[in-house]
Amino acid sequence: MIAVHRYAGLEVAVVGLGKSGLSAARALRAGGARVQVWDDGAAARAAAVAEGFTVTEPSPTSWRSVDRVVWSPGIPHTHPAPHPAAVLARQLGRRLVCDVNLLCETQLDAGYIAVTGTNGKSTTTSLIAHILTAAKLPTAAGGNLGTPALDLPTLGFAGTYVLELSSYQLELVPVLAADVAVWLNISPDHIDRHGSLEGYIAAKKRVFYNPNRVQTAIIGIDDAPSRAVWTSLRASGAHHVIPVSVTGEAPNGITVRADGTLVDATEGRPRVIGSLAGLPTLPGVHNWQNAACAYAAVRARGVKAEQIMAALATFPGLPHRQQRVAVIEDVAFINDSKATNADATARALACYDSILWIAGGVPKDGGIEGLEAYFPRIRHAFLIGQAAASFAKTLDGKVGYTLCASLQEAVEMADEEAEVGDVVLLSPACASFDQFANFEARGNAFIDIVRELEEAESE
């Protein structure tokens, strides 16, 4: 835990007592702040009391002396409707911040690499941290990735914090000041929270806010909104801007050719660095984008190209992101439970040629519209959850499908249908909340089912 001494002797309110909220409360208390906490859930409040925190419902009286309000990013403070405590904070002139902001205020000497985008954030964040660690540089990764910012170790001047940042977090980090900012891609997501695509993009663009020094800004330019951001940043002259493309040439940037060759043109003449094709834990063009952006980020921190390529080959991959669970009788079972929207699922479908596709859950806006180009790769679909009927309507007459009562049934039916060379792919294009607590629980259930099949086949 990193103790936050900036607010020693001051009163700070923490709203939301999930992982990041409780982490912030502990760090503030350790630094000498007078901390009061609040959560709408009785169980969360009871847990805070058990840790010795003062639980106080927000009011003009209880917040009269509050100097700062630390806000959990998952709680709405603008759209679709602001939480009453957010309204109160603004009435009192108190700016909302999150734990990432406290980290940046506290660890002033360390370097920061911030990663955002709609898809690929966790893989790219983990990949950057893996390469830096392989280069024997003090590194810690966290943020939206899983480890709360203030639970990371103290790194000091030589260290680098690699932070995955969601749009929710970026709205709450007024002093981010990242040395290197990575923008992967943009597609519509979290529109209900930001009010519009423009609001979502505006929140993401805060990753480039650095009033203190020139920042290296790395931007994937393969979608129209991201190209617009690249054009704007380049014109401003405020950053060292490096474009990355996996679909064409990136001028004076990083390009990945159609065969997977990584080319670096940031220092003038294009230089072939190596091949990304065949990396076992980074399949597909979308992972090539992740790898190319990670390459650019760690080059900006001084790591040599040869070290980067060697580290890419040893990256272990992440659970629930095209995770190869097993190969049973020459049929691969792939867990891509993290694919909670159609754009993420498109990236998985593009990687395989004969797919038994398990999809469904709580649908996002647009459902699976836009995936038609990948339908020829799908031999059969097994549909689950709330989205099953609407997905069936989209697939009707184009892809054979079966409506399944559960993930268990879908996996077992796909196993029965599978032929040599097929891939059984869980890539739901949906949130998980109709049947599972989160995408991790859904992915773990898939893994358990596949392991049972694997055991049955070996008997």
Report on the architecture of this protein:
33% of the residues lie in helices and 22% in strands. With 459 residues, it is of the alpha/beta class. The protein has three domains: 11-97, Rossmann fold (3-Layer(aba) Sandwich); 100-312, UDP-N-acetylmuramoyl-L-alanine:D-glutamate ligase (3-Layer(aba) Sandwich); 323-458, Protein-Tyrosine Phosphatase, Chain A (Alpha-Beta Complex). The strands form four sheets. A nine-stranded mixed β-sheet has the order 7-8-6-9-10-11-12-13-14, sandwiched between helices. Strands 15-16-21-17-19-20 form a six-stranded mixed β-sheet, sandwiched between helices. Strand 13 and strand 14 form a beta hairpin. It is globular. The model has no long low-confidence stretch (mean pLDDT 95).
Ranges where pLDDT stays below 50 over 5 or more residues in a row are: none
CATH class of the largest domain: Alpha Beta
Number of domains: 3
The pLDDT mean sits at 95
CATH T-level topology of the largest domain: UDP-N-acetylmuramoyl-L-alanine:D-glutamate ligase
CATH architecture of the largest domain: 3-Layer(aba) Sandwich
* Outline: globular
Number of helices: 15
Residues in helices, as a percent range: 25-40%
Q: Label the structural class.
A: alpha/beta
Distance between the termini: 47 Å
Query: Biggest sheet, in brief?
Result: 9 strands, mixed
Number of strands: 22
Portion of residues in beta strands equals 15-25%
**Rg result:** 23 Å
Neighbour order of strands in the largest sheet? 7-8-6-9-10-11-12-13-14
CATH superfamily (homologous) name of the largest domain: Mur-like, catalytic domain
